[in-house]
Write a structure and sequence with these properties.
16 helices
Length: about 400
């Protein structure tokens, strides 16, 4: 009887996967025809398929299956984004990336918290917990957008790098504020900075070492005995980079992103693969990334809780508007203007102000707060999903138009 029940669950899961693949393929085609980022259509399709509307797909946010898809999918998308970056460009803009991914998160969180404190009349520590939860941008959202909308390299690579590196900062500050909100400890600037430095350094080291090893195994003149199995090597290394960094209590997402950067710049280390093999690997990565974002955003759409969101819709929309139109622009200009090396133009900074989509990582943090019964957790979860809906549906759909208006689009 027990095995029969297990088989039925397996069949139901397989059916859900089949539906996601079929709907996702159609959504990808539709996104190409109407020329919008496919994650927008995936999210809308997920809402239609979810339990709030049709009930065709019901995968719980806290389920093991959902967590595996979110973790591996985000990792692979991050790897894909890292592999598209080039050292030459990063050398020009690294100061902006570091400042906006650290101090910028605090600025965004502070302004958003002030708005939430005024709108919801909650204790400031609860408002601050909301601010830090949604302060970091989401690489799983931004990387696919810049894969589809070709923007000037230094702008797209800065935004993608920021989204990868500010994950650690966002998570550290969120749990530091949570400890204060729940009365388990006092906030320590020194402890938080030390934790951030540790996570960052170990994450970069783990990703760098595995990236070099992977490049050597698939592209070294003498030791490339796995060159024919390059796709399998990338899968193994993505999982290894994430779990290895996580085991060292470092940022797994940062490790995966750095792994992608090193592998994508393997020529800089003297490694080179044959053109045909390189094209096969790139095609495999593009296809896998497409499938991963299909699953991530359709499932994310199915988990939107409208009954909970409706309680906070007006206030949430007001706070997210401040978040998008005030907090992000202030953050970008304060963090980018001092970088004399990059010499950012006003148009470049305006574009970066508009590209800060919220997605999987803030949703995961909000889910953890609900599970831990943190103060104001339901309000935070609701506003987080409002932020996801507004930033993806408004900002992602207008990215290409804004880039063209500002003269940053690469045709």
């Amino acid at each position: 009887m027990e095995s029969s029940a297990t088989i039925e669950v397996a069949k139901h899961t397989l059916l859900s996967f089949g539906i996601i693949l079929a709907v996702g393929a159609f959504c990808g085609f539709l996104a190409q025809r109407i020329k919008v980022p496919d994650i927008v259509i995936f999210l809308l399709a997920g809402i239609v398929l979810g339990p709030e509307l049709s009930g065709v797909i019901d995968v719980k946010a806290e389920s093991v299956l959902n967590q595996i898809i979110l973790i591996f999918g985000s990792c692979y998308i991050l790897f894909d984004g890292g592999a598209s970056l080039r050292f030459k460009v990063l050398k020009q803009v690294w100061i902006t990336i570091v400042v906006i991914a650290t101090i910028g998160v605090l600025i965004t969180a502070g302004i958003t918290a002030a708005a939430a404190f005024y709108v919801f009349k909650v204790p400031f520590i609860v408002a601050l917990l909301l601010g830090v939860t949604i302060a970091s941008t989401d690489p799983a959202t931004l990387v696919p957008i810049f894969k589809q909308v070709r923007i000037r390299d230094r702008v797209s690579q800065t935004v993608m790098s920021e989204s990868a590196f500010n994950d650690a900062m966002g998570a550290i500050i969120t749990f530091a504020v949570l400890a204060v909100a729940m009365g388990t400890s006092e906030f320590s600037v020194q402890k938080s900075l030390m934790d951030l430095a540790k996570q960052s350094v170990l994450g970069v080291l783990a990703g760098g070492v595995l990236g070099y090893l992977a490049a050597m195994l698939i592209a070294h003149e003498k030791y490339a005995f796995l060159s024919e199995y390059a796709p399998v090597v990338t899968l193994m290394a993505v999982i290894g980079a994430y779990l290895g960094a996580d085991g060292l209590q470092a940022s797994g997402f940062m490790a995966v992103f750095v792994f992608g950067i090193v592998l994508g710049n393997k020529e800089s280390f003297g490694f080179k693969v044959e053109q045909g093999e390189d094209e096969k690997l790139e095609e495999y990565i593009l296809t896998t990334s497409f499938i991963m974002r299909m699953f991530i955003f359709i499932l994310l759409g199915t988990q939107v809780n409208f009954s909970l969101m409706n309680q906070y819709i007006a206030g949430g929309a007001a706070v997210v508007s401040v978040f998008m139109l005030v907090a992000r622009p202030v953050t970008v200009f304060l963090c980018a203007i001092p970088d004399r090396r990059a010499k950012w133009s006003v148009n470049e900074m305006l574009f970066m102000c508009w590209t800060r989509e919220t997605g999987v990582i803030p949703a995961a943090l909000a889910g953890l707060l609900v599970g831990m019964k943190a103060p104001g957790a339901e309000m935070i979860a609701s506003v987080t999903f409002i932020a996801i809906m507004m930033t993806i549906l408004i900002q992602a759909t207008t990215t290409k138009l804004l880039a063209r208006k500002l003269g940053l689009l690469v045709e």
